[in-house]
UniProtKB/TrEMBL annotation:
UniProt-recorded name of the protein: Bifunctional diguanylate cyclase/phosphodiesterase
Species of the source: Mycolicibacterium litorale
Record's signal peptide: none
Domain EAL: 349-606
Record-linked SMART domains: EAL (SM00052), GAF (SM00065), GGDEF (SM00267)
PROSITE patterns in the cross-refs: EAL (PS50883), GGDEF (PS50887), PROKAR_LIPOPROTEIN (PS51257)
CDD domains in UniProt: EAL, GGDEF
Stretches assigned to the GGDEF domain: 207-340
């Protein structure tokens, strides 16, 4: 028994209601096939209108052509170029019946070109979405055919079903789009990026998968100085440039306020990714005008590469992020490729950021001071000591200052840390003195550049000295040479205030930033500490010898005390003694020791320096 037209419509409704964005074309095609079969016609098509580009686009057809010409003459048809029949698709409101007649030759010719068939009879009904014609549905019989009113009504009902489906899919796609995109930049969002990378990194997919992590270096400044609107505009323009500058097909996402990720389609090795990143960086750094202000964008790019079936999305993103951070920390506007070293550095850094403040605040014993004795190499007399901070970390062991001083400075903890060190050192020193040792010794304390330019630094030092009853002349603050030169006026100001307080001042790492030489005379400095880089190979390296000799001559001319740092060998020590520089510290004399051991050294008063004596003239010690 043949089905009624009503049954065909009902079947179409069931089919189309179940359709989803992923299988919509197949569903539509099945409906077309069913109707073609029922009507006994030859062809059918479903077309959607694109009112933006003003064209009608083929969505589904039945039967599907074996051969589709390229370009397809019935694929996308612009209304302006369409024959009178297709042109009607733009605003069609009622069924349109076309039967072979001389006045639609153009249409017939187009069908013939596209389908290679002679003159036809067609019923075409609009897909209506309110007042708007959103597409057309057409059925064609080769030769001639009549179209009954019942048939036309049934087709119009099916067209309505198609129109509803079209609206539903569009809404779903819109939701999907919103769920996957960042509204400000129009780029993919983090979630969509993760989904993409999950797919790319699944086992069996081609690799390696390269990821570029971009970090805008100055967005905060733009927000702070020009306001958030300008910041938003900046991001939009950046996103546009990023799209334009991504020279190959790639997924581009905005994953944070000022963080973007580019994942090139297809496999890419690390070297290719790095050179791509460098080109992208150059391109992104051109200037842009926002609110009449010229802004130069600098961006740090981190590159990481993952292997499908091996690395996870979060691993890969984290590595690229770490590489970007590392690029940024070396001054920004750089490209860096992820290394395993970065991972451990980053882990330490994170950990330090997380715990440092707590450690400083709780005044627990986690931050400890070790002391490096300063010795007169002629006699071995212990002249003083330098406080060196360490962090007794619960899992990482004893951390040296280079792994956390920088972090402290970058998160504004340098002042706090510096005050803690100053207080602990003064407390220790005062205690030793109260027990009758170190009475004529000097305590040296390192000062972070950040402390030096902070307000009230001299007053804090004054307060601490008073608290522990120490005389300023027994305490020396060490400032690294590079800082002195960076902001000479601020330094001059602070040093003058410190002189009022009465403490001594040493230039640390002397010789590494030559320019301070010109200021030496005008700054209230008491001591220079020759950088250990010049001392280590002294006795073997003629260049170092010349430099040390020059420093000593200069110090002599200005009446400054000199301490040699980093004496590791007998040869270096002997050379220093020959040059007339007996004050020194270094591993040959003593390693840094804890407070108790330092007190013991002070009590002892001397460190053995037998090796420096002429053995023939010195009786052996017991
Ligand atoms: P620095 O002021 O130049 O301190 C001397 C550093 O050289 C110490 O390293 C010391 O252990 C090391 N050293 C001493 N003799 C030798 C030697 O013969 N050979 C070698 N290779 N090294 C030697 P440390 O303790 O790791 O300190 C590194 C830097 O950290 C210090 O360099 C100083 O700039 C900074 N620092 C240390 N403690 C503090 C502090 O409390 N506050 C601040 N702001 N900085 C500190
Ligand atoms: Ca020092
Ligand atoms: Ca030093």
């Amino acid at each position: 028994m043949t089905r009624s037209l009503d049954q065909v419509v009902t079947a179409a409704a069931a089919e189309l209601m179940a359709a989803t964005a992923t299988n919509v074309i197949a569903s539509c095609t099945r409906v077309l096939a069913d109707v073609v079969d029922h009507l006994g016609v030859d062809f059918s098509f479903l077309r959607h209108n694109d009112h933006v580009i003003k064209a009608t686009k083929l969505v589904a057809e039945w039967p599907i052509r074996d051969y589709i010409p390229d370009p397809d003459p019935i694929g996308v048809i612009y209304f302006s170029e369409a024959d009178p029949i297709f042109r009607q698709a733009e605003y069609l409101k009622k069924p349109l019946i076309v039967r072979p007649e001389p006045d639609n030759d153009d249409y017939q010719r187009r069908i013939e070109e596209g389908r290679g068939v002679p003159s036809v009879s067609m019923a075409c009904v609009p897909l209506l979405s309110g007042e708007i014609t959103s597409g057309i549905l057409g059925f064609i019989k080769i030769g001639d055919r009549e179209w009954t009113t019942e048939e036309q009504n049934a087709l119009q009902t099916i067209a309505t079903l198609f129109a509803q489906l079209q609206a539903r899919i569009a809404a779903e796609e819109q939701l999907q789009y919103l769920a996957e995109h960042d509204d400000l930049s129009g780029l993919l969002n983090r979630r969509a990026l993760m989904a993409h990378l999950d797919d790319r990194l699944s086992d069996g997919r081609p690799g390696p998968v390269s990821v570029l992590f971009l970090d805008l270096d100055r967005l905060k400044t733009v927000n702070d100085y020009l306001g958030h609107n300008a910041g938003d505009q900046f991001i939009k323009m950046f996103a546009e440039r990023l799209r334009a500058g991504t020279e190959r097909p790639a997924v581009i996402a905005r994953v944070g306020g000022d963080e973007f990720v580019v994942v090139p389609d297809g496999p890419m090795d690390v070297a290719t990714a790095e050179s791509f990143a460098r080109r992208l960086q150059t391109w992104l750094q051109r200037r842009v005008v926002i609110d009449g202000e010229m802004l130069a964008r600098t961006v740090s790019i981190g590159v990481a590469v993952g292997a499908p079936g091996h690395d996870t999305t979060s691993d890969l993103l984290r590595r690229a992020d770490q590489a970007a951070l590392s690029a940024k920390s070396t001054g920004g506007s750089k490209t860096a490729v992820f290394t395993t070293e970065m991972a451990s550095q980053h882990a330490i850094r994170n950990d330090i950021e997380l715990h440092l403040e707590g450690v400083i605040d709780e005044a627990s014993s986690a931050l400890v001071l070790h002391y490096l004795p300063e010795v007169d190499m002629r006699t071995g007399k212990v002249l003083g000591t330098e406080a060196l901070v360490r962090w007794r970390h619960p899992t990482r062991g004893l951390l040296l200052p280079e792994s956390f001083i920088g972090v402290a400075e970058s998160i504004n903890l340098a002042g706090k840390l510096g005050r803690l060190v100053m207080r602990s050192a003064c407390a220790d020193f005062a205690r030793w003195r109260s027990r009758g040792t170190a009475t004529d010794a000097i305590l040296r304390v390192n000062v972070s550049p950040v402390q030096l330019v902070s307000d009230g630094f001299a007053a804090t030092v004054d307060g601490t000295l008073a608290e522990f009853g120490l005389d300023g002349s027994a305490v020396c603050l060490e400032i690294t040479e590079s800082v002195v030169v960076q902001d000479i006026e601020a330094t001059r100001h602070t040093l003058a205030a410190l002189k009022e307080v009465g403490v001594r001042i040493a230039i640390d790492d002397f010789g590494t930033g030559y320019s301070v030489l010109t200021h030496l005379k005008s700054l209230p400095v008491d001591t220079v500490k020759i950088d250990r880089g010049f001392v280590r190979d002294l006795g073997a390296n003629a260049g170092d010898l010349a430099i040390v000799r020059a420093i000593l001559a200069l110090a002599d001319a200005f009446g400054l005390e000199v301490v040699a740092e980093g004496v590791e060998t007998v040869a270096a020590a002997k050379t220093l003694l020959e040059l007339g520089c007996p004050r020194a510290q270094g591993f040959m004399l003593s390693r840094p020791v804890d407070g108790a051991a330092m007190e013991a050294l002070f009590r002892q008063g001397h460190i053995a320096v037998d090796a420096l004596r002429d053995t023939s003239a010195t009786p052996g010690r017991g």
